[in-house]
Specification:
The structure is a homodimer of 243-residue chains. The first copy, chain A, is mainly alpha-helical. Chain A has two domains: 66 residues, Arc Repressor Mutant, subunit A; 159 residues, Four Helix Bundle (Hemerythrin (Met), subunit A). Helix content of chain A is 70%, strand content 3%. In chain A, α5 packs antiparallel against α10 and α7 packs antiparallel against α8. The longest helix of chain A has 27 residues. At the A-B interface, α1, α3, α4, α5 and α8 of A face α1, α3, α4, α5 and α8 of B. The structure holds a DNA duplex (30 and 30 nucleotides).
Chain lengths: 243, 243
DNA sequence: CAGATTTTATTTGTCTGACATTTAAAAGTC
DNA sequence: GACTTTTAAATGTCAGACAAATAAAATCTG
């Protein structure tokens, strides 16, 4: 099951891959205990530090968890949404910040995804979701609000919209896109005059969701996308020639 | 910049987090060299194995790469799509296989996402994308095709559709969903009589994309979703009572 | 005998020190 | 000046040890 070729390159990576394969293929099931580090080092004919490096690689991906003590060891972890979320956010943030992805591309993907949720959300949103959206809209209209707080509220609003679809996979995928775009979004809100326009669109979305009118939600989101991308472009322009 | 609280729990995890924060925040930029392992162990007041475990955690997330030799060391890695892809696929597969997500939920998310791509793809698809889709449809209609090959072709078809949107973020997110659903999709194709119906829908989609008719693509995808979910339900039913 | 306490064994977490291997730069040679 | 050799620095790996946590077994006590 877990053999290892004798090419002497990156032993810990090879071992990690072997165990990872065993988990993904189902040979190791959730909550199953892996052999102890000593046993693994015997099995793979390597030292314990090498085994430990392999296990830490897997732990970094939330594939295993470890426990100390007599009945301790490494156990196959049941991957949960929270872990998947944070990984997704880290990855998305880096993809964007390292310029592997342009803001425009990310923005397009984000709104395409959000619009995909709109129809489902119009169908399934609960009063709770609506209440959250109304609360956030009210918060956004407060005069003394900092840009950062406005942005946080903006994210919460869209989050409620997406969560209204009742599909955790969609929520999870959107979380990555939104969180990654957060820094630039923050910069956008500095152009303060934009707030009332955004609030108006948010209100339109909330009203349409309350009326379960998917088409209007979609149209409002399309407007918001156009607006956001225009603002981002303006900000980018200003940053290019700050003088 | 990189300090470490003295609570003696999971030192390597703490160090990994400190370095990860530095990368995400931009304090460490792409291709920048980290201090050597010895220097890091001095900095954090821990041993070299502990530092190494921390670095391996980061390497598992493709945040750093290491190089041996005199001018070697650990460097901040420019995250690319391939790495992000494989991580996304691993995560999605596990979320589904460990029952954190139902097939129905994944399927809904997958088609919502794919339908979100439809409009963009109708607008931007190149002749190349169309050719790929036609080729795959032809392959699917070959009588001797194994279920596995049919499924692979099916994935390639949808991949071409999504790639037609020209947005790598969308391609990347959909890849996870599709790959994760692959095993069950394979099982679905065992109900052989379904092939011609699927091929008919594929043809309809390809025709509509050629005509740049987003609405028809959307409708065909909606049909395909309904069909897929029905088949999945049947398969699940059969597995419950195999006798 | 039942329950609480202590002991013990197992396992991960960490440290020290060493050697092997790779690699680029410095030193030496023609 | 171009080529070769040496050297130093860095990661990769190993061995052995101790610390700390923890559950099970053994012991003690009423």
């Amino acid at each position: 099951m877990k053999i290892d070729p004798q090419n002497p390159a990156d032993l810990s990576a090879q071992i990690a891959q072997a165990i990872r394969d065993a988990i993904v293929s189902g040979a190791l099931i959730v909550d199953e205990r892996l052999p102890s580090e000593t046993e693994l080092s015997d099995l793979f004919r390597v030292s314990r530090p090498t085994v430990r490096e392999a296990l830490k690689r897997l732990a970094a991906q939330s594939l295993i968890r470890t426990q100390r003590g007599a009945a301790g060891g490494a156990f196959v972890n049941r991957l949960n949404f929270e872990d998947a979320y944070s990984q997704q956010i880290t990855t998305s943030t880096l993809l964007l910040s390292m310029n592997a992805v342009s803001f425009d591309t990310a923005c397009e993907a984000r709104y395409a995804l959000e619009r995909a949720c709109a129809a489902l959300s119009a169908d399934r949103r609960t009063p709770d979701h609506l209440a959250t959206m109304r609360t956030e809209i009210f918060r956004q209209s407060q005069p003394g609000l900092t840009d950062e707080a406005f942005c946080t509220s903006d994210v919460a609003f869209h989050r409620a919209l997406v969560d209204g679809a009742g599909n955790p996979v969609l929520s999870y995928q959107l979380a990555g896109a939104v969180e990654a775009m957060q820094p630039l979004m923050n910069m956008i809100t500095f152009t303060a005059r934009s707030r009332e326009a955004i609030i108006a669109m948010h209100s339109k979305i909330a009203d349409a969701l309350e009326a379960r009118d998917a088409d209007v939600v979609d149209a409002a989101l399309a407007d918001l996308e156009t607006y956001t991308r225009q603002l981002a472009q303006d900000v980018a322009e200003q940053r290019r020639k700050p003088a």
